[in-house]
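Why this split exists: single-chain examples teach little about how molecules sit against one another. For that reason, every record in the complexes split bundles all components of an assembly together and asks for one structure covering all of them. Below is a record exactly as it appears in the raw files.
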Amino acid sequence: MKYLYFPGCSLKGTGKAYDESLRAVFAALDIELSELEDWNCCGATAYANIDETKSHVLAARNLAIAEKQDLQLIAPCSACYLVLNKTQHALREQEQTRRVVKEALAAAGLQYKDSVTIRHPLDVLINDVGFDKLAKRVKAPLKGRKFAAYYGCQIVRPYATFDDQYNPTSMEKLLKTAGAECVEYPLKTRCCGGSLTGTLPEVGLRLSYILLKEARRRGAEALVTVCPLCQFNLDAYQDKMEEQFDMPILYFTQVLGLAFGLDPRELGIKRGIVSAEAMLAGGR
Amino acid sequence: MLQQNIKYEESRDPDFARWATEQTGGENIRRCIQCGTCSATCPVSSYMDHTPRQLIHLAREGFKKEVLSSFTLWLCASCYSCRVDCPKDIHVTDFMYALKRRAMAERVYPKRFPIPVLAQEFSRMVQWFGRVNETIVAAVMFLRTDWFKLLGQTGLGLKLMRTGRLSVFPESIRGRSELQRMLKAAEASKEKEVASR
Ligand code: SF4
Ligand code: SF4
């Protein structure tokens, strides 16, 4: 199996551990990831505040480059995943966007014929690799560990492609395959505050606080996420909250990697600001 | 208090109401039944001056000044809850984007307010380098809004450095000039569309 890989800016910076653990897990499963040639920033939520058409142009450049190879495109960051999907929808539905983007691409000698499939790594692991194969690879099941599976907004909304929009369950199944338990977590698709945590901390922090408080109340030892911004908000600002939870925030790829018996160093476990080591040592 | 809630016919701007329905996300606002589902599901509505439901009604009635100067636009975290829960399939999140763009174009947002500044700096960096370095964007945002707050971030900076998550060198794509050509072409093509209308 082989995929194109669009890491996005966060995975090159604050979300490094996501990049590391994703690469390690895919390598352990003999899946080849080929980083998209000279990819550019997807524009995230910020660029659409400035110029709508240009935000589509940014995303379309990546899609056009991806189309040159006949491979599906993996986008692990929720914002990238959403933005790429959104542009694909806009190109299909809005004639004017299609025209302008076409001209812009042509200015760089590019074209896009709408043939790229955008995938989230969670989707790929569950639907392309499958639970049977994953279970066979598990060497160090995370017995007794209790996690809250947290999806956040943009992976299921507004375009639910591989799971239910209101009650997604794919991550829970994956974590169970890794040997862990999952607590009931009704807030699993509630917003973490997104970029508000950086811009209006009094609002953003409150949203993150609610998520952690509920995870703790439900008995979770760690919260498992699929998005670099959620990870950052929930991990980096815990000491600024009115209550100290000391709750590690892991990526689902890190959890899977641990269950595969991979070296925690390879999975970026030490990159958490709230350390996960005590929690993990307690279980093994 | 009561007086503030009274709206006068003369402050309505029909051009703005029309403009609103022509935006991405605004196409269906006339269908809104004012049920309030969006406001109920919105995680930040309790901080807003106008709830999403109110904002939609104000916009389609043409209360331009109130809509564009509303704090609500800037609080929207783009979580898309309202959009998926709306019974009339109104794309509230996209409509918020359209309103933010208009507010920025008309420069009606509080000075030194971090949210539009973040969007501007982020976009500038994408246009320039093709990629974004979160550390630099955040630092510039604080410098332009409240540089004193930057000092308050040093603890966080140190923690990120210790865990190897802080990068201070901007990455750049090879196709920078190509990207800039594309953005220029988009601009030109859009202007052409507007002129031909
Ligand atoms: S949920 Fe939809 S129909 Fe109901 S008030 Fe909001 S925008 Fe209007
Ligand atoms: S997208 Fe914005 S307005 Fe809609 S529910 Fe989320 S934060 Fe509220």
